[in-house]
Design a protein that fits this description.
430 residues, alpha/beta, eight-stranded mixed sheet, five-stranded mixed sheet, globular
């Protein structure tokens, strides 16, 4: 079916202020240039709801942003659809890059955890970044190492090892260096650290079924950063960026980590385990320690870290926590330009005093009766960032995955944040 855009209102027979009307073999979206582009996303969802799976966008009003908004709503996890885009001349490469990177993120999150194991996530992440670099003639710019299984314990990556040791699928860490300068001593613009929990049962702090059924998506932070770095490369990123993915399955077995265990990290910080379902911060700690050693201009981590953030902002925003106001402002400028939703939550010095332990330096849960869960989780992470008060930003990826459809999104992964983080990398590297 052909899809047209029209600045005229729909005939009254279709209802007052109707978004869609139909004529012959065409669907018409009634959308003016001043309209909110989410209307195009809503229109795409309505068309899919009517069983329309094969469309061609026709006419002269399909700009890059209009095409992208429509595609966001038309996408579904089953991928039983086809969209033929118009010729966009100078915007063709940008649309293609968005499709490749956005689709990668949504597909890898939507795939089952029996397919995307920790080692597979690390391997697919490295392969995708390498592919994106090859497409822009930067194939020699990517170097990576994957550390897995017993090697993690031997190299003192205690968080990833302890969380993942209870699973048959071994934990893994991807350490990737994108260095287009060709200079081994080039400074690092950014370190990206992603939580890659490919399935989260909660461990011995077992989740109920209705909280566990979407936990294949608990690697959404890692997926987001793979897609964002890939898009930044496609857009011409010319500075060095390092990517650390902390990948594990949180399962229950005789070898799983337990409540009361104490993990001592290689930076000397010890952490008592008071809840095995607060495992994401444990794996991220290893990545943040490594990132802090790189003397990067800034560090950004992304994780589906807390239910508290989702309670605060729902599925509609990614949550942002940082003490660096300038860095937050840069991120929000990038988000506004890309029209992606982010919302700031509080992180203050006093939150670091709310994760005390009688047996270790810190606990992996709050030690106060009523706590701001997203803030105390960030406080935990801050103990593994060398200078946590500046040049570090944490994203709690609340908008990664939807368990039910909305008028904008199908059930499953959204891919939100890819454009914003790619934009931020290019802005900071300019």
């Amino acid at each position: 079916m052909q899809i047209l855009l029209s600045t005229e209102q729909a005939p009254e027979s279709w209802g007052k202020n109707a978004l869609l009307s139909f004529r012959d073999e065409q669907a018409i979206i009634h959308f003016s240039s001043k309209s909110d582009r989410t209307l195009l996303q809503k229109a795409a969802r309505k068309l899919r709801g009517q069983g329309i799976n094969d469309v061609e966008l026709v006419g002269n009003d399909w700009t890059l942003e209009n095409c992208w908004a429509f595609y966001q709503g038309f996408y579904t996890a089953k991928q039983d659809w086809s969209v033929e885009f118009p010729e966009l001349a100078e915007d063709h490469d940008e649309l293609l890059a968005r499709l490749q990177c956005g689709d990668f993120v949504r597909e890898i999150i939507n795939l089952s955890s029996s397919v995307i194991t920790p080692l597979t996530l690390a391997q697919r992440g490295a392969a995708f970044i390498t592919q994106q670099a090859e497409q822009v003639g930067r194939e020699s710019a990517v170097k990576f190492e994957i550390i897995s299984g017993d090697d993690l314990r031997e190299q003192n990556y205690q968080g990833i090892w302890n969380v993942g040791k209870g699973s048959h699928n071994v934990p893994a860490m991807l350490q990737l260096d994108f260095n287009p300068t060709g200079d081994e001593n080039a400074p690092v613009l950014a370190c990206l650290v992603g939580k890659g929990i490919t399935f989260d049962s909660g461990g011995y702090s077992l989740k109920p079924s209705n909280s566990m059924d979407s936990m294949k998506s608990d690697m959404g932070g890692a997926a987001l950063l793979i897609g964002a770095l890939g898009l930044a490369i496609a857009r011409g990123l010319s500075q060095r960026v390092k990517l650390f993915l902390c990948c594990a399955e949180n399962m229950v077995s005789s070898t799983s980590f337990k409540l009361g265990d104490v993990i001592t990290y290689r930076n000397g910080v010890s952490a008592e385990i008071m809840n095995t379902d607060a495992e994401g911060r444990l794996v991220l700690a290893d990545g943040l320690i490594s990132a802090s050693e790189q003397n990067a201009q800034f560090i950004l981590d992304a994780a589906t870290l807390t239910g508290a953030a989702k309670v605060a902002v729902g599925n509609d925003y990614h949550s942002v926590l940082s003490m660096d106001n300038a860095l937050v402002a840069d991120l929000f400028s990038a988000a506004q330009e890309e029209k992606e939703p982010f919302w700031r939550l509080p992180f203050e010095e006093f939150h670091r005093g709310q994760i005390g332990s009688s047996f270790a330096d810190i606990s992996n849960t709050s030690s106060v009766a009523i706590s701001a869960g997203a803030s105390t989780a960030t406080a935990f992470l801050s103990h593994f960032v060398k200078d946590y008060q500046q040049n570090w930003l944490h994203i709690d990826c609340s908008a990664t995955y939807r368990k039910s459809p909305s008028d904008l999104w199908a059930t499953g992964a959204t891919g939100l944040g890819v454009l914003t983080i790619a934009n931020l990398l290019l802005r900071k590297g300019a």
